[in-house]
Amino acid sequence: MALIFFHLFLRTRQHLVELAPKSVFIPRGYTLEELSEYDGVKKPLAFVSVRGVIYSCSMEMYGVNAPYNAFAGRDSSRHLGKVKVGREESNADWTTLSDAHLAALKDWDELLRSKYVAVGWIIPSKDFIKRAEAFEP
C-alpha cells in the first residue's frame, strides 16, 4: 500500500515539474505608445484597454486575424461602448460617452474583468481628452 502511495506521489511531483511556469505581469502604467506594441503582431500578446484598465486577452480572440483584433493594442473603450468595430475613436477619453454607451461599456468591462488578468492601466497622452471632443457621445 505504501508503495502505491509513493508511486502516486512521484507521478504527481513529476507532473508538476512538467508544467510550464506562467508569465507574470506586475501591473504598471502603460503609455498609449507602449500599449500599441501589444496588438498580437509586434509582440505575441494582445492587450486591450477598457475604461483605463489594460487586460491581457487571449490571442485566439484578440490576436492576428482573430475576431476582436481591432481592439487589441489600444484603449478601445469608445468602440466597445458604441458596439462599433474600428480604430478611429480609439485612444480617446471615454467618459464623454452617452449613458447608453457607458452602460454597454460597463458590460464589456465586467466581461473582460471576469475572463482576463488586468496587467496595468493607461497613462493618457496630452490629447487623450481633446481627441474625444471630435466624436459623438
Automatic annotation (TrEMBL):
Residues 30-123 form the Cytochrome b5 heme-binding domain. It comes from the Eukaryota. GO terms for cellular component: endoplasmic reticulum; membrane. Belongs to the cytochrome b5 family. MAPR subfamily. This is Membrane-associated progesterone binding protein 2. It comes from Trypanosoma rangeli.
